Amino acid sequence: MKIFYSQEHRKRQPKTELHGGTLRPPFECAERLDFILAELDKRRFGEIVAPGSFGIEPVTAIHDSGFVAFLETAWQEWSALGYEGEAIPTIWPTRTMRSDIIPEHFEAKLGYYCLANETSISDGTWEAACASKDVALSATQDVLGGARSAFGLCRPPGHHAAIDQYGGYCFFNNAAIAAQHARDHGVERAAILDVDFHHGNGTQNIFYERGDVLFVSLHGDPDQAFPHFLGFADECGAGAGKGCNLNFPMPPGTGFDAWRARLKSAFDPIRRFEPGLVIVSLGVDTFEKDPISFFKLASGDFTTMGADIASLGLPTVFLMEGGYAVEEVGINTVNTLQGFAEAKQVPYS
């Protein structure tokens, strides 16, 4: 399995995250990838490959062009205002305000395009986001070229990024960009399987009315977990996408047996959809010691998860999403990949 990775992610080194009423070092940090790389090297698993350059067109095929232009110059505009800290919004177009206008003032635009203020914009954010989508596209292109699987070691992650909003540590939706790339290069239908602890609200937003991309998400009940306002079981798609959005929310304390049962129930609709490939939004924040989740998966469970995903027998692109128990993020990520790589592709029962 090829592992696509870019050092450009290190250009994004945010110093602050608003959490529990205080500013603290972000949970989403460059060290996450260091632990994954160290574990890959320790096990001599896969081949590390630099990504190609795909330009901005695959991004604007998914995201609003005004949103993309905003992100490109956001740090420069913020810095020009003379602020010393990182760009964090203080006002949003909430229910009692208008959301059909985009004010010219930068601080207003910041709130317009941001869905949650735990995610600051810092120096290097644009460069890191562009490199992350190139990692995702390179992994996808490898599978389109005939590889059974590939892993895009993406940072920043992507599944919370909506058509015109960033947040949840995400700026470009890597999985959505990858799925569109596959569609544009001959894949009739694509499936996205999101196993991150948090619901992939951005991915749902992007494909909710489309019937050519199936989105399946296993996640913490949004009544109790971020992003709170999306990810409920009755959200099944609309228009051409009706029936192509499947959410499996689960309560606090969910262990692997219950989680795996939901994964198994997700396989039947994926098979019926007959996708040309499956993109796995791989978050390992379902781990029992993760600081911002409430599931109870152990490290060994990720090996089983990988083997279960292999039983679909589909070309598979893994893209890194969340996972914040930094010391274990490498073990859990590589367990998933190794479980997949070493499994026989036979129907799962």
Overview of the structural elements:
36% of the residues lie in helices and 13% in strands. The model has no long low-confidence stretch (mean pLDDT 97). It has 349 residues and is of the alpha/beta class. It has helices at residues 31-43, 57-60, 65-80, 106-113, 125-144, 174-184, 201-207, 256-273, 299-310, 326-342, and strands spanning 2-4, 17-19, 22-24, 47-49, 149-152, 190-194, 213-220, 245-250, 277-282, 316-320. α3 (65-80) crosses α4 (106-113). It has an eight-stranded parallel beta sheet, sandwiched between helices. A two-stranded antiparallel sheet has the order 2-3. The chain has one domain (2-54, 131-342): 3-Layer(aba) Sandwich (Arginase, Chain A), CATH 3.40.800.20. The two termini are 26 Å apart.
Question: In brief, what are we looking at here?
Answer:
This protein has 349 residues and is of the alpha/beta class. The protein has 10 helices and 10 strands.
SSE diagram, text form:
Elements: E1 2-4, E2 17-19, E3 22-24, H1 31-43, E4 47-49, H2 57-60, H3 65-80, H4 106-113, H5 125-144, E5 149-152, H6 174-184, E6 190-194, H7 201-207, E7 213-220, E8 245-250, H8 256-273, E9 277-282, H9 299-310, E10 316-320, H10 326-342
Parallel strand pairs: 1-4, 1-5, 5-10, 6-7, 6-9, 7-8, 9-10
Antiparallel strand pairs: 2-3
Helix pairs in contact: 1-10, 3-4, 5-6, 9-10
Number of strands: 10
Low-pLDDT segments: none
| Helical segment count | 10
Order of helices and strands: EEEHEHHHHEHEHEEHEHEH
Overall, the morphology is globular
User: From the coordinates shown, what is the CATH architecture?
Assistant: 3-Layer(aba) Sandwich
Strand order of the largest sheet: 4-1-5-10-9-6-7-8
Question: What is the share of helical residues?
Answer: 25-40%
Q: Could you tell me how far the N terminus lies from the C terminus, measured between alpha carbons in angstroms?
A: 26 Å
Structural class: alpha/beta
